[in-house]
Amino acid sequence: MAQHLSGLQMLTSNRLKSGDVLYRKGAGWVLTLAEGEVYATQAAADAALAAANAELVRNEFVSPYLFEVREKDGGIVPVKEREIIRAAGPTVHPHTGKQAGQYQ
Amino acid sequence: MLNPVMKSGPVEPNMYRYDEFDVKFVSERVEQFAGQVARRLSGALTEDQFKPLRLMNGLYLQLHAYMLRIAVPYGTISSKQLRKLAHIARTYDKNFGHFTTRQNLQLNWIKLVDVPAILRELADVEMHCIQTSGNCIRNVTADQFAGATDEEIEDPRPLAEIIRQWSSLHPEFVFLARKFKIAVGAAPHDRAALQFHDMAVEIVRNAQGRVGYKVMAGGGMGRIPYIAHVMSEFVEREDILVYLEAVLRVYNQDSRRDNIHKQRIKILINAIGPEEMRRRVDREFQELKAMGTLQLPQDELDRITAYFAPPKFESGLSDTIPEAGADFANWVKTNISKHKAPGYAIATITLKTPGQVPGDATSEQMDVIADLMDAFSVGEVRVTHEQNLVLPHVRKKDLPVIFAKLKELDFAAPNAGLITDIIACPGLDYCDLANARSIPIAQNIARKFENLDRQHQIGELKIKISGCINACGHHHAGHIGILGVDKKGVEFYQLQLGGSSAEDASIGEIMGPGFTEHEIAGAVERVVNVYIAERKSGERFLDTYRRIGMDKFKAAAYETVAA
Amino acid sequence: MSKLLKSGAFAADPFTAAADDAALAEGPVLVSLARFQKEREGLLARNTALGVRLQSHENPESLGADVHHFALIALEFPKFRDGRAFSWARMLRTRLGYKGEIRAVGDFLYDQMNYQHRVGFDAWEVPDNFTVEQFARALTEMTDVYQPAADGKKTIRELRANR
Questions:
Q1: Phi/psi of residue C90, each to 5°?
Q2: Which CATH number fits domain B326-409: 3.90.480.20, 3.40.50.360, 3.40.50.2000, 3.40.50.920?
Q3: Which of B15, B106, B487, B552 is most exposed, with minimal Cβ within 10 Å?
Q4: Is residue A53 within 8 angstroms of chain B, CB to CB?
């Protein structure tokens, strides 16, 4: 099932066993957004999502979806607040989550 | 490091205690879920198949991790149970939990693979996560002052416990169209938000002086809020389960299944009208009653009621609250409520110190509260739907010591029912469904109004904040309600005024376009200032709003924004 | 492919499902409610067992007095989350006093079979790789029940009283 967004995109999911947020890189997943792969074209993004959907049968991760990112200050940041929080951790508990180096 | 409280040993409160059947039931349910987890990990169950099964065991997949919702039946919990929750939060989570608007506890950083072990630990203290989520009958909630207040006809919790058992894995009702929330009340002051529930039972006395049950249905928050309709003014005690089952059956059969946003019972009753709903329910009721299998005999009601017998109250206690300084006096003004027994009081512990995350407690704080429960509250505490805790039976003479201990915990805010006693859902900081953050908004508003004189000048003002239209923060029932929305990826906050979840239930009126996260606290302040300027003697914010309407509040709220 | 599980064992299915516009095979046939309502006389005149398949929005009460003419009533689960058939089965057994086969068809889970059994289902259309051991286990994961249903099983309250 394709998602159509404009601009740069990334792919995320949750690890089944732990719930940890994952970012697609190549044919695998990494734990931080900074390490994740950015798709510059819709075709590349669609292909990544299709590959992930085909891998759901591995029962390693769930609910993969694409989201928009943009370049900022030499780095990559999500466009939406939700993805910013998802990538970092809760804003009200800055000592928890990926922002504090904690991974599930 | 918190100072340890004088130890008195764990106290067993009078509450429902599992017998061998309840123990086996929960234990088998845990193993059933462990089997489901194994089948999910092996792929024998797909995520689509597994999701409703894990939801019916309280497990959500949220923004950062899995969230586990632990049932606290009708908000009643013992010190032993609270210590176990502290232990679980410490061992399997990040050392804290969140008390919810349905009297449950949520843990935010759970791993799926740990859940069977967590459930086994919960079972050790007669706790579970059964049906705390999913399209089924949820945790039955009740007045947090049950068994302690002098204004109730009787303690609503025995009935709540009977409903809990009847609804547990009810084979006909585990795949309903949507969630189904039930609340029980017994007092003229409604502290359980009965009229905003899918179904509610109010214990009443009829003209002949006989005690029975008024049943309401079709209330709800969410996308489209509704106030419940009366289904029956008086159901006889022995018939209550029959009546509730009749309502559920009509709902299960007749609810829509084609549009997830139109599948709550409130939508059904609104569509067919309360008159027709009553007719359908009555038909089922008559037939079920004729079958005779679901009658509630008086001896069973008595048997369950005996579990909730009041503690042995001491006699000859002073009925005066001691002097203990200005801070203590302020706390007494708002956080102490009248108890039915002379010399006793009901103490509300607001988990709302300005700047705190509303409703959160660390494992350490939970352990100290457990000590307080043992020493001063017969081992018992209640969770309220306003994300606070209540010590239901404390001796007035112990209040100063309790207050001193709460101060050490940073849970001594003297603000129950005041403007800084805010309800806020977890919001976009935690929740997968959210559109905006709610906790920081609550923190900002609470800090803005922190001055205690100002809070008392304002008086009773219930602010309720939801991070999305699912309304878990009950914003429709806030005197001031705030709804977080997403406008092109940016968080905006809409104001609603004039809602109430008490016996004078009303749905808040939407003011207009949303405010940014930087504007919202200021807008709230301008709204409050209108109230102060316009109020007549004795009027709460809610009363003034109901008298003068929206216009002046709206004009003031948008004043600075337009400039 | 699927097979029929009836009263805890696999059984040959005597019924042939007939599409709304297909000719009827000889022997027992399973038709839709729409077809039954359209061809009632003819279907009832046949000298073989008759079955009707109800969709999840179709209330068995619409069968009226004819309900007892059916040897088989198949209740469909279009999606396992659609739980209306739990009430339909219960209604068939209790209000309507139906004594024939109530069969679960469509999309349902192993984890629902115990509930289905409790409300009056006695037959299931299951995948080929489903075993009787799985069915037996499904019914025994939870030993006791808190509430009466349509299976006559003693409730925990009754067990407590009989201690």
A1: -60, -40
A2: 3.90.480.20
A3: B487
A4: no
